[in-house]
Amino acid sequence: MKRFLGFIEKEFYHIFRDKRTLFVLFGMPIAQVLLFGFVITNEIKNVNIAILDYSKDEVTKEITNKILSSGYFLLNKNLTSDNEIGKIFRQGDVKEVIVFEAGFAQKLERDKKANVQLLGDASDANMANLIVNYTSAIIMDYMAKTNSLQTAPMQIKLESKMYYNEELKGVYMFIPGIMAMILILICALLTSISIVREKELGTMEILLVSPLLPFQIIIGKVTPYILLSFVNAITIILMGRFVFGLPIHGNIVLLMAECMLYIVMALSLGILISTITDSQQVAMMMSMFALMLPTILLSGFIFPIENMPLVLQWFCHLMPPRYFIIILKNVMIKGTTFAFVWKETLVLLFMTFFFIMLSIKKFKIRLE
Questions:
Q1: I need a surface site. Which of 132, 260, 291, 359 has the fewest CB within 10 A?
Q2: Domain shared by 310 and 278, yes or no
């Protein structure tokens, strides 16, 4: 029995000495509970909206103040004409436009009826539906309290319209997100084991004595996967178009160029992982754990970034899939030009350059 207890004690010492094991045992559960607890929610908050008020009377101002004071919405802009609606939706910040018809208060007083139009950006169908429902509930609550003070009940007629996805198909949301997740996982996974495989097979020495420079070795490792991953991207786009009916309204050349940029970025990230790991198993685990959960939770793919705590929103800015999903939705669904996605493109370019430079630096450190 003493030997058995001694063996158990030895195992405890072994676990407590291994920081990676302790992290897996205690760090990962805590991190996942915090992430899922803060990210997964059916509520909305801090949603950017725009107001198009043709009436500008006391009633429309009261309704607007009630909507903004609810804590769910933030006023991004006051619009002046219908022509601005499409442009502000293409910019991507505003998720809903509320339109009050001209002479709103007068019609409500005279005819006991007035119209409000709720326009949602349905490139994210679930979010758009949720936002419109919240807005409708706030306006209906305002009317219920107003009618309680009136002898003759008044009615606000709500008309909702969804931009870019009138049927609220979920495919408009999940195809861009799935594409971003699959490409970064496959690309990083494939390249993360490339240099590590050379180490494990003992062929790294051959590369070291070759006349190739470190950056040439890294570029040589990445190049074959670029073409294969690009074929993957085309396959996903074609499946989205012909199997699920996802439209491609934008420039196909721009779409392909953005896909290529994202692929190169993902491959360079995989190379970076391969330069800092010593085994294929560790490289694969790091690729899966470090990329899969953040891509699902912190990219805006499923859960709105605006709903998250400020600290997690900062982390979201470090997630490459976030920017690629924005680009895909803008180009494919909204049909925008490069003028509306240049910021996200520059971020992906910077990340690509950063990962490649860091990979070259780490490669030198590890091999010299």
A1: 260
A2: yes
